[in-house]
Write a structure and sequence with these properties.
By secondary structure, this protein is α/β, with parallel strands linked by helices. Helix content is 49%, strand content 15%. The chain has one domain: P-loop containing nucleotide triphosphate hydrolases (Rossmann fold, 3-Layer(aba) Sandwich), CATH 3.40.50. It binds cytidine-5'-diphosphate (CDP) (2 copies). The site of one cytidine-5'-diphosphate has 16 residues, from α1, α8 and α10. This is Cytidylate kinase.
Length: 225
């Protein structure tokens, strides 16, 4: 097992994992893994290659050939390049999140991405966000956070976030999409969305970003970060 420290940040769609992760990266100088982006990229790559998303072995087979690079460090300047092309905008769409959750039910797809995620564990440390960071990918993470909030509040946050990026989204549709994605992520047989037994639960409903970060700061100080 690696001795490089990991902080795992898990939780459902639109709960603030990215915000917390970016803040922790700034605080610690650690590397970052946005594991959801890998599932999103693989789903879009399968669509682009004309592969049926339910043909899980064929989807998984695309994973090793994907050339991915992450640039930027804030929500405004982050970009994700796949094969040298900028996929950032398509990757952010809620419809892409839904495609990602369809392939994420597959054990073959999860296995194909497992080592790739662990390869991000480099000195001086890693902040990793997703659904199974604390349970499956980095079970020995030194600090595990599990964020939650009501679906309505997460849809409101996501709508505001998308509108800032110039993407219009209907609130009722977003709510519906987020509920459907959560149900699929929580209900799947492999690596379902659930807190690790040693995770710290943070219910962020009604909490401002500052209030959430104050809780995160207290927990990270207590864990020695
Ligand atoms: O990564 P994840 O999908 O979990 O969520 P995010 O992209 O970090 O957060 C979604 C949006 O909600 C961002 O624009 C955050 O700044 C915002 N947010 C918020 O308004 N209040 C919070 N307590 C947490 C996040
Ligand atoms: O930012 P948001 O929480 O909306 O989504 P994301 O983290 O980009 O993840 C997109 C989808 O990928 C999720 O709904 C999951 O189905 C899947 N995923 C997963 O299964 N395991 C992970 N570690 C990360 C994402």
């Amino acid at each position: 097992m690696s001795t490089v420290p990991v902080i795992a940040v898990d939780g459902p769609a639109g709960v603030g994992k990215g915000m917390v992760t970016r803040w922790l990266v700034q605080r610690t100088g650690f590397h970052r893994l946005d594991s959801g982006a890998l599932y999103r990229i693989l789903a879009l790559a399968a669509v682009a290659a004309g592969v049926d998303l339910d043909a899980h072995a064929a989807v998984a087979a695309l994973a090793p050939g994907l050339q991915i690079s992450f640039t930027g460090s804030s929500e405004d300047d982050e970009a994700i390049l796949v094969g040298g092309q900028d996929w950032t905008r398509e990757l952010r769409a809620e419809t892409t999140g839904a495609l990602a959750s369809r392939i994420a039910v597959s054990p073959e797809v999860r296995e194909a991405l497992l080592q790739r995620q662990r390869d991000f564990r480099l000195a001086p440390g890693l902040i990793a966000d997703g659904r199974d960071m604390g349970t499956v990918v980095f079970p020995d993470a030194r600090l595990k956070l599990f964020l939650d909030a009501s679906p309505e509040e997460r849809a409101t946050r996501r709508q505001r976030q998308l509108s800032k990026a110039g993407i219009a989204a209907n609130f009722a549709t977003l709510c519906e999409e987020i509920r459907a994605r959560d149900a699929r992520d929580r209900g799947r047989a492999v690596a379902p969305l659930k807190p690790a037994s040693d995770a710290h639960l943070i219910d962020t409903t009604g909490l401002s970003p500052e209030a959430v970060l104050a809780r995160v700061e207290a927990l990270s100080v207590a864990a020695g970060f």
